[in-house]
Amino acid sequence: MLLILSGRVAAQGARPLYRDSTRSAAERTQDLLARMTPEEKFWQLFMIPGDLDDPAHDYSRGIFGLQVTSSDSSDDAARADAGRINAIQRHFVERSRLGIPIIPFEEAVHGLRRPGATMFPQAIALAATWDTALVGRVAGAIARETVSRGIRQVLSPVLNLARDVRWGRVEETYGEDSYLASAMGRAFVGTLERAGTVTTPKHFIANVGDGGRDSYPIDYDERLLAETYYPPFESAIRQAGARSVMTAYNSVDGAPATQNRRLLTEVLKQRWGFPGFVISDAAATGGATVLHMTEPNAATAAKHALDAGLDVIFQSSYEQYRPYWEAFRSGMIAAAVVDSAVARVLRVKLALGLFEHPYGNLDSARFWNGHSSHRALALEAAREAIVLLRNARGVLPLSDTLRSLAVIGADAVEARLGGYSGPGNRPVSILAALRTRLGPQRVGYAAGPGRSPRDPVTVPAEALRPGLTGEYFDNIALEGRPLIVRRDERVDFGWTLSSPGAGLARDWYSVRWSGTLTVPAGGARRLGVAGSDGFRLYLDDSLLIDDWQKRSAGMHLVNLTLAGGSTHTLRLEFFETTGNAHLRLVWDAGVVDDGRARIDSAVHLARRSQVAIVVAGLEEGEFRDRAFLGLPGRQEELIREVAATGTPVVVVIVGGSAVTMPWLEQVDGVLDAWYPGEVGGQAVADVLFGDADPGGRLPITFPIAEGQLPLVYDHKPTGRGDDYLDLTGQPLFPFGFGLSYTAFAYSRLVIEPATIRPGGTAVVRCRVKNVGGRAGDEVVQLYLRDELASVPRPVLQLAGFQRVRLAPGEEREVAFRLGPEQLRLLDRDLRWVVEPGAFRVLIGGSSKDIRLRGALRVQ
């Protein structure tokens, strides 16, 4: 008997064509697509974190992929992880109707975010190496650890540009410059893709807006997008072969990025010919309904997203599939649109070989994850990433003959790895590495005051038992009968995307909480409210705080004396008129402000030591943008007081973005270690004592003060000048900056030929010599300035770089190739052209430290 399948004839019981690896991917995709039901197609366009542990979750129709949970922290975590993923994969291969394998996925910004995986230096640190070959080797190690577990997609790299260093996610990026980010992105993406791992450059196209705030709307014209923001993504796709792209949360020029047809279809799929699939950021598809307010429900949001070019809906839980399935089930989304998206997914699954080889290798996972060669590579990368920012009086490198070394700061012992990190394998702290080198008897430690001020804390449920009675009104004046009455254990709420409860608007309500406050032993000295106004706080029927006017947000505290064990009646009233409300009931019971004592202890240790190392850290991350770029808590006070002892002081910064340094001239040395990975403490010790040269260079500009922001080196010419009335427009440290323990001389600039046609190529050569007494690394940077153009061009633009290691007295020729890719511009009609004219060729050690100057003419 014969069956007719979409115009093809197949024998009943014969092996399906899509299972035949000798047939083309196009044939196999079309055969499989013709066999799928609407539900099966939908599930190939839906991805979530999850597993098979909940029997109520029906995966019989398959799913695009899962971010499988992993809680094993044993020494054999990688092997156990691979076994768990294999078991889940086997369920889909053997028990779903068509046997379509899933794509297990995970984060891997600077290492696979799973127990047992190697944690390399954070992405911004990798960019600070200015070493694409090294980044390629790091990506290769990540690929081995990833594929061996059966994970076949990473939600990395972040190719957004860090054009405003207040953004909390600068650490995940490759810095501010489009050329540098493109080069790093190609090295990372190309290596992983060739190893059989789908990369997902994100967040298309810009994920940070005004004020350096995460996911703020952007309104950039096509020129700015094409000149600055597109290149890293286009390069990763067209040159390195990225097979997935993730959209951003924000809106771009009036349309949510997840529904932006200009970005997803016209630019990405049509102009660049992107053959892979586009995924949303987690829960971003529904953002049009609760954030952008452009859709009435999730079903219409899904329709307009897929119509615009989205392929896969990424949600945070299984239950969230229902409103999106409604859009498919009801026919809101055209069949052709669905089929196109499913075909993109199936082609990638077939290209990965998942139908033939769906499983990870348990023994390989055990072997490669945390392999000694990967750990050695993590150490090498951390050493290369460290940037020396100050070295007054040659305080560094330190001598092994030191009799006493003070190490100060919580970051000296915490060995923080940065955002989107796994736990790492045996992380090495800075203190541990220094004690291993000098011996514990010569290295003293003081914790200092830490990164966080000792602020009041949320009043805990134990002090409010049996809870507060919350009366919720559907008006802003506490009038009438409450719509909701419930018991709240404490007041610690953030009603940002939703209202306090069913029936209440997210931006029009009032609440009255009442109950009993019991003070713990030790008493309390301050009580108050933190969050959005307006609110009123009563204690024992006396009005303590009256801020019943909508104006701002903040913390309001009252000094009082509450004896331990005492009880008090409490009432808190609150109203909201515009939404995005935050509210906490706070006090200082149990909070010990020992910051002064901790600083004094550190000063005492520094005073009796030959050298003091202050390890200072940042607080930042996703949705943790910074209004101020100074060191948080009382760390600046700590640095000043330690420096006042007269002991030579070196500050080591642990963080992922820029720092303002009003204390800079008071200290002798500054090292930026970034988040240096699981062996980072060893790398810092090696640089401090001169076993490694600090050859890292800044991939971002450091401002003197926040008022200069955004501040980037490659801005276009101003109409007047750069300076302020009360501050220079120049940076604290420029893009590309970094010192060495040795010195380098540049000479013999040659540009051949000196004149080229618009489509021609020139080679720029120069010689670099180590004229110091130590081996060291120099990052030779080539910049261009277009002398006369039809449209304004950047005052300076990176067009090439090479990191070279030179022994004392060693000299080497460095060569760069300049062609249309570096010389082109967008003309007035937004066409890429190379215009005739002169280009200034500038070579040096940073965007400010120019050593050689020549000219190239295009005729």
What is the structural class?
alpha/beta
Task: Give the overall shape.
Answer: globular
Count up the helices: 20
Uncertain spans, ≥5 residues at pLDDT below 50?
Answer: 1-12
Taking all Cα atoms into account, the compactness measure Rg is: 29 Å
* Number of DSSP E strands: 41
The spatial strand order of the largest sheet comes to 15-31-30-29-16-17
What about the largest sheet?
A: 6 strands, mixed
Brief characterization of the structure:
This protein is an alpha/beta fold.
Write a concise keyword list for the protein shown above.
six-stranded mixed β-sheet, alpha/beta, 859 residues, 41 strands, globular, single chain, disordered N terminus, 20 helices, six-stranded antiparallel β-sheet
Describe this structure in words.
This protein has 859 residues and is α/β, with parallel strands linked by helices. It is 25% helix and 25% strand. Strands 15-31-30-29-16-17 form a six-stranded mixed beta sheet, sandwiched between helices. A hairpin with a 2-residue loop joins strand 1 and strand 2 (8-11). Helix 5 packs antiparallel against helix 14. The longest helix is centred in the N-terminal third of the chain and has 19 residues, at 77-95. The chain is globular and about 85 Å long. The N and C termini lie far apart (72 Å).
Write the layout of secondary structure elements.
Blueprint: E1 2-5, E2 8-11, H1 25-35, H2 38-43, E3 46-49, E4 65-67, H3 77-95, E5 105-106, H4 123-128, H5 132-148, E6 153-154, H6 178-194, E7 198-199, E8 208-209, E9 213-214, H7 222-238, E10 244-246, E11 251-252, E12 255-256, H8 261-271, E13 277-279, H9 287-290, H10 298-308, E14 313-314, H11 321-329, H12 335-351, H13 362-368, H14 372-385, E15 387-391, E16 405-408, H15 411-414, H16 430-438, E17 443-446, E18 457-458, E19 468-473, E20 484-488, E21 492-495, E22 509-518, E23 524-532, E24 535-539, E25 542-547, E26 553-562, E27 567-576, E28 581-587, H17 595-607, E29 611-617, H18 635-643, E30 649-654, E31 669-672, H19 680-688, E32 744-752, E33 755-756, E34 762-770, E35 776-786, E36 797-806, E37 811-818, H20 820-823, E38 825-826, E39 832-833, E40 837-844, E41 850-858
Parallel strand pairs: 3-4, 3-14, 5-6, 6-7, 10-13, 16-17, 16-29, 29-30, 30-31, 33-41
Antiparallel strand pairs: 1-2, 8-9, 11-12, 15-31, 18-28, 19-20, 19-22, 21-28, 22-27, 23-26, 23-28, 24-25, 24-27, 32-34, 34-37, 35-36, 35-40, 38-39, 40-41
Helix pairs in contact: 1-12, 3-13, 5-6, 5-13, 5-14, 6-7, 10-11, 14-19, 16-19, 17-18
